Amino acid sequence: MLSGRRYRLELTAVQGEQCEEFANVCRAVWNTGLEQRRQYRRRGGWMTTRRSARSWRRPSVSTSG
């Protein structure tokens, strides 16, 4: 059985802004990943969590001379 909990946060104005910014970043990352999966499926592929996680572990390293 699933159960949920609710908490009331009493944030300062600065904390509220930081939480909102954090939520916006999380939403953007989620939506980007979702769109990538949709595009992959349209091409006939299937992206699993394991395959997706493997690609996340490979950092893109840029070298500037």
Describe the overall structure:
By secondary structure, the protein is mainly α. It has a domain at 13-47. The chain contains two helices and no strands. It has helices at residues 13-42, 49-57. The longest helix is centred in the middle third of the chain and has 30 residues, at 13-42.
Q: What integer value in Å does the Rg equal?
A: 18 Å
What proportion strand? under 5%
Number of helices: 2
Secondary structure category = mainly alpha
The averaged pLDDT comes out at: 82
The 3D shape can be described as extended
Instruction: Give start-end ranges of low-pLDDT stretches.
Output: none
Largest sheet: none
Number of strands: 0
What is the straight-line distance between the termini? 57 Å
Order of helices and strands: HH
The portion of residues assigned to helices is 55-70%
Q: What descriptive keywords fit this protein?
A:
65 residues, mainly alpha, 60% helix, 0% strand, extended
Could you outline the blueprint of secondary structure elements for this entry?
Blueprint lengths: L12 H30 L6 H9 L8
Short description:
The chain has 65 residues and is an all-alpha fold. It is built from 2 helices and no strands.
